[in-house]
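ok trying this again, last paste got cut off
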Amino acid sequence: MRLTKFTDLALRAVMRLAVSDQGGSMTTREVAEVMDVPYAHMAKAVSRLQHLGVVEARRGRGGGLELTGLGREASVGWLVRELEGEGEVVACEGAPPCPLRAACRLRGALRDAQEAFYATLDPLTVRELVSSPTGPVLVGLVGYRPD
């Protein structure tokens, strides 16, 4: 299974914010710069994370983004499900619809595989995701630029 770029971006933002207490709060712009992604994309991801109750944003002087208690203890499986939405791996009902949809066993097998993928992520929390060695690397990211 492949995650959407939006989910990948939101997960990276959550991971960076999970260690921000070690380096002060960050703005959406700063998170975008550190992760080397466009600000507009990061702003959409942060907005969705706020809607889920994972991130809190404070405006003005001393403001910034902060991961909530829910955000720190959230199951990665739950978070990925919420970010990915209810879609199936294949679009059997798409345009045009698959002619096999009424008698296809693949659709059910792919649905089971998708749930197994999420179930593997369920026991992992955001807090665990950023434990060493990942956390120190995240704290050290400053205006990342690949070679």
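PB: full thing came through this time. The chain has a mean pLDDT of 85.
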